[in-house]
Amino acid sequence: MPRRRIALTPHAWGRASKHRPWDSRVSLPPHNPAAHVDTLFPELIWLVCIAFMAGLVDAAVGGGGLVQLPGLFTALPQHTPAALLGTNKFSSFFGTAAAGWRYARNVRFPWAPVLFAAATAFVFSFAGATAVTLLPRDAVRPLILVLLVAMLAYTLVKKDFGALHRPRDVGRRELGLALLMGAAIGFYDGLFGPGTGSFLIFLFIRFFGLDFLRATAASKIVNIATNLAALSFFVPSGHVLLAFAVPMAAANVAGAFAGTRLALRGGTPVIRKLFVTLVVVLIAKMGWDTLAGA
Description:
The protein is built from 10 helices and no strands.
């Protein structure tokens, strides 16, 4: 005698699946991959364009996170902040690595203090990420705002700041300074983040006598270390949206090549102008955030 198929109502389906979960006659609605792709496509195109611009800006003068991270939060508000931060770090890591490789091939700078700074930046970025749970970011913002204003004023008052390449001899004092600098920047990058590249450029000029071009090149090596430290947390914990992160990483690399080309052709004068512009934007954004959060 042939079996009869019984059409289940949602209520009966629930009872059947509860008592007979192995019943293969109850079929799920078919999955439609095309609908999923159509949902992702507009946001993906937008984010790829944003990632290209972020890679270009970051390679030339730093501050790519100011472009890319707000774009992620705007395009993908349904995802957790941790997933968006991880996606941002994944994309920017490849762009920064590409920029660092291009600069290392074309620009000479003192490797010893840069590597010392990168080592402590890698370690202390973990400490900064841990401190996020202990120290509210709103408490840090006013201090960073004051430092940015002071940095901008110093750059504008000293007209020759970063214009000439006058590297200092690297001894114990300079290596110790590089360790402290890397620790402070790494901690800040893990805790807060915005303006990390600008602070690195300023410090390499102020304490090691580099010009803007070489300071930008040196800052990329330290940025690679801080991004790698962040990824070692975000990737194993699953906080990376690979469907977006991989195409964004490719676009970030393309932008980084364009940015390094611009910096290498324009040299120090162009980078100085971009640096001042970026710091002004940082001050405006952080001032707005401080007032809005008050």
